[in-house]
Amino acid sequence: MKDEPKYRRVLLKLSGEALMGGRSFGLDPETLERIATEVKSIHDIGIEVCLVVGGGNIFRGIQSAAHAIDRATGDYMGMLATVMNSLAIQGALEQVGVDTRVQSAIPMSTVSEPYIRRRAVRHLEKGRVVIFAAGTGNPFFTTDTAAALRASEMNCDALFKGTKVDGVYSDDPVANPAAERYETLTFTEALNQNLKIMDATAIALARENGIPILVFSIQSPGSIAEVAHGRGAFTLITE
Questions:
Q1: Residues 121-129: what's their mean pLDDT?
Q2: What are the structural domains of the chain?
Q3: Rg (CA), the chain
Q4: 41 in Cβ contact with 2 (< 8 Å)
Q5: Among 153, 151, 165, which residue's Cα sits nearest to residue 50?
Q6: Cα–Cα distance between 140 and 146 in angstroms, integer?
Q7: CB 106 within 8 A of CB 86
Q8: What is the pTM of this model?
């Protein structure tokens, strides 16, 4: 069929900053509601969806006042910020009628399930959206790496990376209007050109497991559904 989605199971990676809307930090309720509605739109057509969200909207402000904190401790603080964001997204999704589970890589049984791969797969098969919180549970790994890891473990067909711009550019398109936009890239090109779409560990992990990465603007209404159907503006990174 013409409108048949291209992917059966996807992982959506969002930065914490994507949840701020027009604010300088924290969470914007309207943005949360819009993202939840867009996730629902692909969930309702039968796509199994899981999410990983960063914590920059909460943790960036803490970092500026925490120079004395060592890297490992800082990373754990960032993981806790992702749990807060995950619970916020869970609340927004359930407000629009989507059954959701949060699984945390750091045990936090009062507010979430522990991360158990088989249980997460079962949730997806039952039509629930699963949000993976607390990154990989280890310091020195980013939430981009956590997204590539969970996408591999869940056997996802694609990793959707929602950003502020409509794809991957040769340079910052805001600072450099002449920056070139790429329609497609190979994993090797993305690594060799150091394009900073995701960290190198995440890209290498996606390459190793054959998971295409689609980079698009989360700020464009309807963009998640468009990308799920192979339409709209995005950069496809694949082998």
A1: 98
A2: 9-238 (3.40.1160.10)
A3: 17
A4: no
A5: 151
A6: 11
A7: no
A8: 0.94
CB atoms within 10 A of CB 138: 15
Q: Please, which residues bridge with residue 158 across strands?
A: 10
pLDDT of residue 39 exceeding 80, the answer is: yes
Which structure tokens are listed for 105?
């890589």
Terminal-residue alpha carbon distance, the chain: 26
CA atoms within 13 A on the CB side of 179: 16
Q: How many C-beta neighbours within 10 Å does residue 67 have? A: 7
- From residue 57, alpha-carbon distances to 13, 66, 87, 183, 203 in Å are 15, 16, 14, 29, 23
pLDDT digits (tens, 9 = 90+) for 58-74: 987 565 556 678 889 88
Map tokens 């949360």 to a residue.
Answer: 32
Please give the single-letter amino acid code of residue 78: G
DSSP 38-71: HHHHHHTTT-EEEEEE--HHHHHHHHTT-TTS-H
Band of residue 173 on the pLDDT scale cut at 50, 70, 90: confident
Residue 154 to residues 58, 61, 127, Cα–Cα distance (Å)? 27, 32, 14
Torsion, Cα of 2, 239, 215, 100 (10° steps): 70
Question: Of 187, 205, 207, nearest to 197 (Cα)?
Answer: 187
Alpha helices in the chain (DSSP H): 29-43, 56-63, 71-95, 117-125, 143-153, 187-192, 200-208, 223-228
